[in-house]
Amino acid sequence: MSARTRRQKAALAAQSDENETPVSNGTAQKSPKRSKSASTEKEVKENVYLFAPNLIGYLRVVLTIASLYYMPFHPRTCSLLYSVSCLLDALDGYAARYFNQSTTFGAVLDMVTDRCTTACLLVFLSSAWPRWAIIFQSLIALDMASHYMHMYATLSMGGSSQSHKKVEASRSWILYWYYNSKTVLFICCALNEVFFIGLYLLSFSSPTLSPSLLKPLTESTAQTAPTNLYESPWSAGALELARANKIDSFWPWLITGISAPVMALKQIINVVQMVKASNWLVEGDMAKRKEQLRGKRH
């Protein structure tokens, strides 16, 4: 036998000894091999708060707060910040699908941001036109009630993993059409916001809707006028503020008129959504009561 063959046999014998462990009765038992997956697999830790769509959601919140700051006295800047925040609403959904980071927290964050953003703008319109405040207040109530009931019904009846955008055609064809077509959903949400932005700009530019724009500045109103934020009317800040508030009403009227039918459709969808969510919750209540009655009989 050659030296090379003897070395190979010795190596095989040593390997077999390592794989065997002695037991109390003197026999040898093969030790279980560790699986590669157990030794090499590392626990993946994810921070849902830092998911890409949620980071976009935080940016939307910041932009919304900034737009609220400029809302009373700088309509151009406010409209720009508000519009960017609304456009990012479409981007976070795309990011969630692209990175496979769809979460319940992200869905709720998105919906809460949408509702609060629109509500804050409607609150401003209520103060701009107190005579029509009840209409804007009703729109706030309908928007929040409809989406809250729909979200709650989806989570309680469909399960915690169920998306509020997954609506069966048998439950409501209009909600199925609204939620399952990304184009329809984007157009309805975007033009709904455009309508309210148009009204906001008209409060600064249309004497027809805001007759106070034609009234001369009196001593009593001058104390609350935006131009009095600066001591000198010819300062850079005062001139910029005056320029910002000098808006022609043609474009606000145009975008408001074009988006009005879609805004009306969006409110109809909100009513249908609230009714269908109510019916779904009632179905669940009736099913639970039937089970309770059966339990009592048995």
Automatic annotation (TrEMBL):
Its EC number is 2.7.8.11. Keywords: Transferase. It comes from the Eukaryota. This is Phosphatidylinositol synthase 1 (CDP-alcohol phosphatidyltransferase1). The gene is pis1_1.
